[in-house]
Structures are given as structure tokens and as C-alpha cells.
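Quick question, first post here. What does this chain look like in 3D?
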Amino acid sequence: MISGTREWAVAEINCNIGCPHDCRYCYARVAALKKGLIDSGSDWSRTRIIEAEVESSRPLYGGQVMFPTAHDIVEDNLDEALQVVSRLLEAGNKVLIVSKPSRCCIKEICDRFSRQRSQILFRFTITSRNSDILSFWEPGAPAYQERLESLQQAFKSGFQTSVSIEPMLDLEDVQGMIGEIEPYVSHSIWIGKLNRIEERVQIVTPEVAAEVERIRHQQQDRNIIDLYEALNERPLVRWKESIKLVVGLPLATESGLDI
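> Answer (accepted):
Ran it through. C-alpha cells below.
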């Protein structure tokens, strides 16, 4: 089964270990713990550059390349991220840049690669408009307004734009949020569930338990089916495998199709 980042890309590139966003549901933190790249979950927010990945030359891959997948592009690693993107573009690759974006980083990327915009597709992760929900689940990430303004900036700069609402952190507002972001999206809006909660989320306080229960309730099959029926005719909306499995859509059979 093709799932996760492989729905979007044939190759995944990273230049960092760790991420200051410190999202509670982060799959990359769990993977880093299993691989021994960090000693504890609390180490994840203390980031370090992988110099070999920054300096590495890049081949022409056989499809869309995703950068980054296990961290974000932030001010502290922006120079290194620009170098990675530059090498990917110079090799002729189509690059999917995925981020919970900050305005300053997106402006720099847009300015730096304006002549190569046809090779770049932005995918901005926007999981909720609710500031309380975002500060709980994604405590170090930019606020909704900054993500929206970053999307607007990339769109107005002539880049291809898309949005990932995965994980959905506020299903009840998904339709309203899409109405606000849709005018600035040229490619697609992806929607997906919060996956593997038991594995990825440390349920250590009553507050966390209550938030997890809220998400689980919202993600019940009946609610997912209702959301699908409400949005499926919207031409920009696409569904991640977590929702395809609920509503009976065929799964991707090939990596990197991004459909």
C-alpha cells in the first residue's frame, strides 16, 4: 500500500535532525528515537544540521522529490535548506517543499528561486485556525495567520501552491478554513486524519487525554464520511489514505502520483 509521504513523492530529502516546532504528534521524533538519533523525546526540539546532506550533490530522480519530510525550514537552517533546494533544482528535479511556514523563510525561498518557480510546488501544513488548538498540538510552529500570509505570499509570487490539512486538528472547522485558504491554492488541498495516536502522542496529563479524546471523537467514521460527502465535489480537495480507507476510495498504486 502506498501511504504517507510516498503518496506525494518518490524521494524524501532532509538536512536536519530535530525540529523546533515540537509537534505532539510528530512521527519523525518517534522514528529518531527508534533509530537512536536522539536519547529522549525532549531532545527533538534541539536541532542539528546533517552537513553531509547539505553538501551532497543530487541526481535527477524519477518523479517529484519532497523536502523536507522529517523537520521544517526555519530561520536557523534556512541557508542550508536553500542549498539543498538549489542542488535539487539544478539537477532538474520537481521539488515539493513542505512546511508549517514562516513569512521570512517563504519570502527568501520565493526570492531566491523565482526563475525556477515552475519546478517548485509549495505544500503548507495548516491543521487548524484555532489558536488554542495549534498552541497545544504544535507549540513551536507559526500561528495560523502567519501560515495563511505565507500561502498568500507564495501564490502572489507566481508559485504553485497547495495545502495539507493532515492531521485535521479541528474537523468541525475544516470546511470554513478551506473557504478561507482556497483562493490562494492553485494545486490541491489534502485532508487526512491524525494517525497512530497511541504510538506518537504521549498521553501523560488529563489535558492531553482530553484533547486526544476530542480528536478521536471527531475522526469517527461517520464524521469522516459526512466530511467527504460535503467536500468531495470541490476540485482542489484530495484525500489521504487514512480517509480513503474509510470512504472506500482506491489507494494509490504508485509512489509520487500526488493525486
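The CA atoms of residues 167 and 194 lie 4 Å apart.
The beta strands are 11-12, 16-17, 48-49, 65-67, 95-99, 120-125, 160-165, 188-191, 237-239.
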